[in-house]
Design goal:
It contains 13 helices and 19 strands. The strands form five sheets. It has an eight-stranded mixed β-sheet, with helices on both faces. It has a five-stranded parallel β-sheet with strand order 2-1-3-4-5, sandwiched between helices. Helix 3 crosses helix 5 and helix 4 packs across helix 7. The radius of gyration is 24 Å and the shape is globular. The two termini are 38 Å apart. Bound molecules: cytidine-5'-triphosphate. Cytidine-5'-triphosphate binds next to helix 11 and strand 16.
């Protein structure tokens, strides 16, 4: 926990029963060396007293937009914060922030800041699942706000369900991660990166297709990691950004939607012309129906004999026409003889790196949030990357790729 040290963190506390946990969050942030400025809503003070935060935090509690010492406290707070954390965030605060309404000091600060914002919702399950709240959360995620939780568990009044505030330890760790990624060296600034994601869909008829279990999570993790490091990123994908809302979306990624291998091949070839790095994380179908039916195949006509043909191998095509200096990263999804199969793909497809994983293993590959990979480089190096989140896998692979790139530039 190093990134929060020395950082100015506005700790927004709104009115829910979980407000008492904000005391523990405040203490943990202080213990990690952060400068904590508590901003409470009127509702929050119904659950926890100002005096508690006054005693624990770096500065006294602020609550009012009309401070006698500072005529514009929200702008001062917003401009000087390194991060604004709201824990717990009620449906009201989330709604106001999503709608751009500043009805008190906390919501005004949220709108006045350019610093990263971490929102930790806590409310009853019925409220959390209400479409209005879900829409507001989706809006915030799209704008690059980090949402942490909520978790499922015991709620006020003895109910059980989704809506419980995440643990103070998880919340402080999330703030640390956010500050880590924003403070990181922008080592990919000025680079153009193309990432493919998801499994392609090869139509059998207008309603059916041949697909696979790829979720697109690893591809999106690469896109977001590269963008966070300053790259201009295009993701060519068959799926929307998957997964729970609990991770940071980096805005500014160009999303190109495709369905089939052929569409992905065309979009990737075009985007790759100008790219410095191409990452083929997509699970491209290897076969497609030769002649998809124009109308839905009817059951009464019996089991159809579907004739298949190979799809274009996008990675091999890119490898064969790779511009000078471009770095090409492929994947190998294997269920046996991982190292040998991956090595064959590395040389056979003309890639600079192959990220290999055993998709038959537990918590690895398709649809999981975690992955465990081995990176093979074209010069024979083999780098295992142990079990970690897909974002951390992306980080480790890009660390390796960028390290090699820097070293080869120094040698020239
Ligand atoms: N790939 C591709 N075009 C295809 C098939 C795969 O570009 N038609 C790419 C994938 O995006 C991945 C790499 O090739 O980066 C390896 O994909 P994988 O599915 O592991 O292997 P295949 O080449 O399809 O071979 P096999 O299915 O026989 O293992």
């Amino acid at each position: 926990m190093t990134s929060v040290a020395g950082k100015r963190i506005v700790l927004g506390v709104s009115g829910g029963i979980a407000a008492y946990k904000a005391v523990e969050i405040c203490r943990r942030l202080m213990d990690s060396g952060a400068h904590v400025i508590p901003v409470l809503t009127k509702g929050a003070t119904r659950f926890v007293g100002r005096a508690t935060f006054d005693a624990l935090a770096s500065e006294p509690v602020q609550m009012s937009l009309f401070d006698e010492d500072d005529p514009i406290p929200h702008t001062t707070l917003g401009q000087t914060a390194d991060c604004v954390l709201v824990a717990p965030a009620t449906a009201r605060v989330i709604g106001a922030y999503a709608a751009g309404i500043s009805s008190d000091l906390l919501t005004a600060t949220l709108i006045a800041t350019r610093a990263p914002v971490v929102i930790c919702p806590a409310m009853h399950t019925e409220m959390w699942e209400h479409p209005a709240v879900a829409d507001n959360i989706a809006t915030l995620v799209k704008r690059g706000v980090s949402i942490v939780g909520p978790e499922s568990g015991r709620l006020a009044g003895g109910d059980e369900g989704a809506g419980r505030l995440s643990s103070p330890a998880d919340i402080v760790a999330a703030v640390d991660r956010v500050l880590d990624s924003t403070g990181r060296r922008l080592d990919m600034a000025g680079l153009s990166v193309v990432v493919t994601a998801g499994g392609t869909r090869e139509p059998i008829d207008p309603v059916r297709y041949i697909g696979n279990r790829s979720s697109g999570k690893q591809g999106y993790a690469f896109a977001e990691e590269a963008a966070a490091r300053g790259a201009k990123v295009t993701i060519i994908t068959t799926v929307d950004r998957p997964g729970p809302l609990g991770t940071t979306v980096v805005s500014g990624i160009t999303v190109v939607r495709v369905n089939t291998a052929e569409e992905m091949a065309a979009a990737t070839a075009e985007a790759a012309k100008e790219a410095d790095v191409v990452i083929m994380a997509a699970a491209v179908a290897d076969f497609r129906p030769v002649d998809p039916a124009g109308v839905k195949i009817k059951k009464r006509d019996g089991v159809p004999a579907i004739q298949l043909e190979p799809t274009p191998d996008i990675l091999a095509g890119l490898g064969a026409s790779k511009p000078e200096g471009q770095i090409l990263v492929g994947f190998a999804a294997e269920t046996c003889e991982v190292a040998d199969n991956a090595a064959a793909k590395l040389s056979g497809k003309g890639a600079d790196y192959i990220v290999a994983n055993d998709v038959a293993a537990e918590n690895v590959g398709f649809a999981y949030d975690t992955n465990e990979v081995t990176v093979l480089a074209s010069d024979g190096r083999v780098r295992p990357v142990g079990m970690r989140s897909k974002r951390q896998v992306a980080q480790a692979v890009l660390d390796l790729v960028m390290g090699d790139r820097d070293a080869s530039e120094e040698n020239q």
